[in-house]
Amino acid sequence: MTTFEQLKQELQTWANPEGVSASVILQLSNPLRGTLSKIIRQGCMTFTELAGELKLSEAETDEIAELLVECGFLKTVEENADGEAVYMLRHPKTTRPEAPIAVWKMILDDFIDEEKA
Amino acid sequence: VTGIVTVHSFSRGVGKTTLSVNIASLLAAKGCRVALLDLDIALPSAHLFFGLDEDEVTYSLNDYLAGICEIEHAMHDLSARFAFKGKLFLLPASIKLADINRLMRQGYPAERLVDSCDQLVARLGLDALIIDCQAGLTETTLPAIALADVLLHIMRLDRRDYQGTGVSIDIAHKLAVSNVYLLANMVPSGYTPDEVTAKLAQTYHDPVLAALPYAEELSRLASSEVFVLRYPHHALTKRLQSIADHLLAACAPGGT
């Protein structure tokens, strides 16, 4: 399966109408997880940068970017001087200081791995 | 270029705030422009070290996160108070029970946190933004880890901390944080710092910045003063200066 097909398949399982939290990003596979983490850190990402991060062609990036917006991961904020789209992460409306299930799953997985070893 | 340094720990009481406050002060004393954001909204304490009284804090980080004030209203310039060569801005979390409860119960928009960092960096021309985040791994600590250019994970030599440290640094790597450092704090006498450092590096596969011994003088200050300002010639101050310099260098593009 190509990266493009894998990304399409993965994104079809997600819907984040309230925005995406860091714990959701943790559950994604790479290169998606790394790319979204980078967007958090740098604030936004252009279409060209997105294509470079995901290692996709222009046409493939176009389709994946559309899916990322549809799934609620990204929002298009503006077009830069070159006329290309710029994306930002859609942060959740509310963040509460509670432990996310994804973290507990990681701890449990570590424990199971240790038991197996 | 501003670097965001997130100071994190899995357990409480490992000295995360003490180290954040001292590192920020050392950088400011050296001439850097630094902001310290107290994101430990459940147990805020950074203001105590600087002697910032409750009546001096009209607006806090809680107010900004709740959309009550602008970032500049919540910011406190401590540079003149401590005669720093550079600048030190503190964004204290509120110590009012009602404010703490409100944020714990209702949460806040994650975008406000990200926005606060962007605004601080843009308005203050910072060399470093230090985030003293809440202990543990919660929905509020994860964005602070994700935002970090440099993550400093503090731990104690305590079994309760070992697995949590492993999970924390694993999460930092999953969130593509490029510089992850470990620091063992309050190491009891009887341990050799070099041995502790080597053992931790071997276990966690990340660089260990230091294994700092328990310091009686630090303990006696009881969070009422900044250690490095009170004891500028202490051996621990020299170790902390080296840690602060290392973190600042790691913030630079391509820095390690």
Give a summary of the structure in a few sentences.
With 117 residues, chain A is mainly alpha-helical.
Report on the architecture of this protein.
- The complex is a heterodimer of chains A (117) and B (256).
- Chain A is mostly helical and 117 residues long.
- Chain A contains six helices and three strands; from the N terminus they run H-H-H-E-H-H-E-E-H.
- Chain A has helices spanning 3-11, 22-26, 32-42, 47-54, 58-70, 101-116; strands spanning 45-46, 74-79, 85-89.
- In chain A, strands 1-3-2 form a three-stranded antiparallel beta sheet.
- In chain A, helix 1 (3-11) runs parallel beside helix 5 and helix 4 packs across helix 5.
- Chain A is globular, with a radius of gyration of 16 Å.
- By secondary structure, chain B is of the alpha/beta class.
- Chain B has helices at residues 16-30, 46-49, 61-65, 71-74, 97-106, 110-124, 141-146, 159-174, 193-204, 216-221, 227-230, 235-251; strands spanning 3-9, 33-39, 76-77, 87-91, 128-133, 150-155, 179-187, 208-213.
- In chain B, strands 3-4-2-5-1-6-7-8 form an eight-stranded mixed beta sheet, sandwiched between helices.
- In chain B, helix 8 links the parallel strand 6 and strand 7 (179-187).
- The longest helix of chain B is centred in the C-terminal third of the chain and has 17 residues, at 235-251.
- Chain B is globular and about 50 Å long.
- Chain B starts with a strand and ends in a 5-residue tail after the last helix.
- Classes of the chains: A mainly alpha (117), B alpha/beta (256).
